[in-house]
User: Fold this.
Amino acid sequence: MSTQTPAKPRQGYRTWGPPLLLITPTIIVLGVFVYGLIGANLNTSFQDRHTRGPAEGYVGFENYTALFSDDTFIYSLRNLVLYTGTFLVGTLVLGFLWAWLLERGARGESLFRAVYLFPMAVSFIASGVVWRWLLNNAEGDRASGLNRLFESLGLGFLQNPWWTDQRFGIMAIALPAVWQLTGYVMALFLAGFRGIPEELREAGRIDGASEWQLYRHVLFPQLSPVALSATIIIGHMSLKVFDLIMAIAGQTNYTTQVPATQMWVEFTRGDYAKSAAIGTVLLLIVAVLIVPYLVATYRQERRR
Amino acid sequence: MRATPKKLVAVLATAGLLTLTAACGGDSGSGGGGGDSADVEVFTWWAEGSEKEGLDALVKVFEEQNPDFNFVNGAVAGGAGSDAKNVLASRLQTNDPPATFQAHAGAELTDYIEQGQIEGLSDMYEEKGWNELFPEGLLERLQQDGEIYSVPSNIHRANVVWANPAVLKDAGLDPEATYDTLDDWIAALKKVDAAGKIPLSVATDWTQVHLLETVLLADLGPEGYSGLWDGSTDWSGPEVSDALDDYATLMDLTNTDRQSLDWPDATQLVIDGDAAFNVMGDWAEAAFASQDKTLGTDYMAFPVPGTDGVFDFLADSFTMPVNGPNPDGTEAWLDTVASAEGQEAFNKAKGSIPANLEAKTDDFGDYQQTAIESWQNDEIVSSLAHGAAASVSWLTDVTAAVAKFGSDGDVASLQEGLSAAAEKNQS
Assistant:
């Protein structure tokens, strides 16, 4: 059958109907599998479900107060902060540096760009297996991986216990993470540099700006949204770190405890309430980082 | 026929919705297992190596004994069984149990029992005369509140020291020597240290728990050690402190890269002559055997000093889940597991020893023969690191305390952690 008169744009369900129909599956799936499950998780975290059996009742914030009076959990939060700091500073500084070098017209740009980006194609769990060997903490005769390299280069003093150090071991885990994601941050910055019109630089030069002043007052301000995006992306990845640690150190290793690995251990033993509480804390930490960013982006888009 | 873009969009959207609901509907319909009533799904984490070979041998016997039943392999690999346990937990919660599943015999079953997820088997033991097939000490250790919940398929011994005689000779020690006490042994370890080799090799956290368990057994004796699990031995008492001091001394004499290793790597250090001793369960025997090493010349095996005459046991076993899909099939499987033929085939391939006393073991290996003899004569205690002595939750807490000690070396806080774990988990 065919319609004789082409449908006129009309108010009513014809305008909002089809779009609504289109996004309904997404809304349902998101509603059930994201927000519904967040709700279920929150619910579990207020219960006394410490075994695999059903819960017996609600205990309010008891699971949370227990968490924050647990030294190991505090230690794992501290680890998370250290890790995130190292990961962020490492990727941002190196990523910017590489982007800057390429932007200055280093030779073989496309080659370097590919080389730096490639590690991102590897999953954390796969690179973790390799880094587990590279970061082996044996020293001296039995050293392997990086310690062996230092030894054979005559840099024996650089040998260190890597991730098994009690205070800063977690920072060694950031090393592979930085290696993997610096290329990505570089690509972000490179895109940022390329997005700045040549005219702006020329105008700056004509006004007599030195090279440093040009960067300081013309280029950096233009790059700050990129830097913010990179911070958010790397930051939230870093807060969820799990696979890398599982691959390198395993779930029980003390020096690399972070909330996500603890959550897994508690889940595996059947302490669902505690596991859910850790999950909620983790969600809140990520939300603290993400929500202001989303709000800011939303406002910016409305202004346009 | 002409369709306006809007109509097209609507059709596409509806189609999308339909596939979505169809997908959801399909998901809840299929529930694994089920199916043919002749299917017997056996859930294990034996997916590779000697464990897989053992399972295959057992399945062969099962199929010979029960041509009417159809074995379905429900093995989940990975994480030394922890992945399998997570999968199993969710299946049991959604009332979709396999016909039978593997679990370490003993306290590891506590969670399943408390949740009413597995059937008591004492009547079956009585009816089939299994009480005479297995040694009394084992039956005692399988019981929880007077009821037995699983059928053991194999026995391993945890308190074994593996040694490299060549390294010992180089360090000026008698390779044939056995040590009566931990102190004697520590003196020997220090000599090896002076000779520049690793005295005692150890690997990641669970192998440290394994080592700690044998040290506790040596210093507290079998009775004191067993008392740790029923509350009659005080975790914060001076005896435990002394044992933990010994443990700390031993840990000082181990390799520094332990966190990067798993047990085969630690055992390999002994095989390769980099380390003098390694404490590991007798599944390590397979590592020596597969590299053509001979017991008595290339390597030595003896009980951990101070634990002679004690058999620190762990066992795999099979259960009967409540509301299983095929109770007759489950019973047939348990029959095969308990039978002498099943145990012979399985254990010969896996390198463990049969729990069944009637199994013929004449053609088992040299080491297995000595283990069989000890199994029949020694006092039996339950292993901590392998789920026989304490519940999963308790073991998790102990492992956390031991892992922390591995990095900070603080004996007092180790003891605190261990007694807190006992307090929290002792029922």
Observations:
- Chain A has one domain: 24-303.
- The domain at 24-303 of chain A is CATH 1.10.3720.10 (MetI-like fold).
- Residues 63 and 186 of chain A are 42 Å apart (CA to CA).
